[in-house]
Design brief:
It is a single chain. The protein has 4 helices and 5 strands, in the order βαβαββαβα. The chain is α/β, with parallel strands linked by helices and 155 residues long. Helix 1 crosses helix 4 and helix 2 packs across helix 3. The N and C termini lie close together (9 Å).
Length: 155
């Protein structure tokens, strides 16, 4: 089984780098696992789906910033929970759910059997800088532990 942990974010935007930092910590903790790859991306949509093709299991980690965010809150999703976002307003603005559906139609054998999306809420007022707030650091640590345990159980 080939497993991918995909960290999403931008490390120079403070808490928005949370997904990247989690991916790096997972990579460090699971460096002994030849079946686990870790990648970092700062994009979504088509490019993000292209990164996950060919894996059996994928864990995506990202931050979530909105006015209803509770900094530090962790949530877990399946791609199907985003199906209500399937709409095309522009071919250049294809979101992850739309891109995943497109690839399911084009290359169904390359789509991972299991995709889990983990998010941690962050303050929507992003700042420049490579340091994260205390709630984001705490969430990143907890997410890392959760993901490592999930992967170790799939041994």
């Amino acid at each position: 089984m080939r497993i991918l942990v995909l960290g999403v974010g931008n490390v120079i935007m403070g808490d928005d780098g949370l997904g990247i930092y989690v991916a790096r910590m997972v990579k460090d903790r699971l460096r002994h696992r030849a079946d686990v790859d870790v990648k970092e991306v700062s994009v979504g949509g088509l490019k993000m789906v292209e990164e996950i093709l060919g894996y059996d299991q994928v864990i995506i980690v990202d931050s979530y910033a909105s006015n209803d965010a509770v900094p530090g809150r962790i949530r877990e999703f399946e791609p199907e929970q985003f199906e209500d976002t399937l709409h095309v307003s522009s071919p250049h603005g294809t979101n992850f759910a739309m891109a995943l559906q497109m690839y399911r139609n084009l290359e169904p054998d390359r789509i991972p059997k299991k995709i889990r999306i983990f998010t941690a809420d962050i303050d929507p007022n992003l700042t420049f800088g490579e340091s994260m707030s205390e709630p984001a650091r705490d969430a990143a640590s907890r997410l890392t532990q959760m993901i490592v345990l999930k992967i170790e159980r799939t041994a």
